[in-house]
Amino acid sequence: MRLRKSITIEISHYTFKNSTKFGYRRVARELRKKQGLQIKDSTVRNILSRARGKDLLKGEKVISSNGKPVRFYDWYSAEPFEVIQTDLKVILDKKALPREVYHHTQKYNLPLYQWTAECVNTRIRFLCYSYEKSFTNGLTFYLMVIAWLRAHNIRAELVFTFDWGEEFGGKSRQKITDLKKLLKPLGATIHQNHKGQSQENGFVERSHRTDDEEFYIPRLQTIKNNKQFFLEALNWTWYYNTKREHTGEGMNSTPYRKLQKQYAWISKDICAFPPLLLDKISTNIGPWGGYNQLAHYRNNSFMDKEHTEYMFSLRGTYQSELFV
Do 162 and 193 touch, CB atoms closer than 8 A? Predict the structure, then answer.
């Protein structure tokens, strides 16, 4: 009887893994929470390892000839905010949203696109939104993220990684060159991933599923205007960065707690990035205006007081015309 129960539990482990595509730590956590099983992470890892040997797991990670997972960058040695993965998510996605949520989003004309920047070291994320998928909005997004980090005294050289979407330059060498010129004085640069290799932006790509499962699907149907949408988005950003634990490699904590262990002096305010509507901002600054409106990067120095105060004031703009 004990053997039969053990086999049943093992089957439930890799069945749950196949249905969710979670890593072993999160599988263990969810089984403890939902099924009341007193099981260690290492036990789940061993069970899944045996299942992998029997080819019972689906959608496994890419591995190299020596059997080790492929890593395209030395992500895990990067300091906080040194490497930031960026991506554009289509919110109105029939494959991701239930039909009723999809139609509700259309009916109330809620934002169509989510712009995401995720620090690979801490998993802290910054979100913005738009109705248009444009290069100008992409540039504006970078400028807002850079200004926010500099306002919180992040002095690191920033590397933004992105795919081949036109909103980040795409196939246009001229746009890529222009973007590099714009960002260089701000202490930032860009890196375009290899074409068709979405795993090179794996952290931010994976976070889109979390957005659907934990934010859009349960919350969108309660939202009927942009003011409410952006307040919900701010709450979601704060929850993701400060309350929600992550189980990825080197994590097992919230993103902010991971940041605190390395940079204890950084205020928790950094997690409250305002989810702005890029369309209205980009039409005001124009395609090049942000280059002059942001203080240039100066290593080992503080940003000008007026720019620091401006970025902190953005947290109070949720009643402003940006979100009407």
Answer: yes
The whole-number pLDDT of residue 322 equals 39
Distance from C-alpha of 117 to C-alpha of 108, rounded to nearest angstrom: 26
Q: What is the pLDDT of residues 254-305, one digit of tens each?
A: 999 999 999 999 999 999 999 999 998 876 655 444 443 444 444 433 334 4
**Measured over all CA atoms, what is the biggest interatomic distance in the chain, rounded to whole angstroms?**
73
- The domain in which residue 246 lies consists of 75-323
Q: Are strands 83-90 and 113-119 parallel, antiparallel or unpaired?
A: antiparallel
pLDDT at 319 over 50: no
266-276 burial, b for 16+ CB within 10 Å, e for fewer? beeebbbbbbb
Contact 56, 12 (CB under 8 A): no
The total domain count for the chain is: 2
Domain match, 253 and 292 both: yes
With contact defined as beta carbons under 8 Å apart, do 167 and 138 qualify? Answer: yes
The DSSP annotation for 141-194 comes to HHHHHHHHHHHTT--SPEEEEE-S-GGGTTT-HHHHHHHHHHHGGGTEEEEEPP
Closest Cα to residue 162, out of 146, 150, 176, 143? 176
Beta-strand relationship, 125-130 and 158-162? unpaired
54-60 CB contacts, 8 Å cutoff, 24+ apart: 56/14, 56/18, 57/14, 57/17, 57/18, 58/18, 58/21, 59/18, 59/21
Contact 126, 145 (CB under 8 A): yes
Q: Which residues are registered as beta bridge partners of 308?
A: none
Alpha carbons 188 and 86: distance in angstroms, whole number: 13
Q: Taking the model in full, what pTM does it have?
A: 0.70
Q: Which helix (H) or strand (E) is 285 found in, with range?
A: helix 278-293
Q: Are 49 and 128 contained in the same domain?
A: no
Query: Within this chain, do residues 44 and 88 fall inside the same structural domain, yes or no?
Result: no
Distance separating alpha carbons of residues 61 and 165, to the nearest angstrom = 24
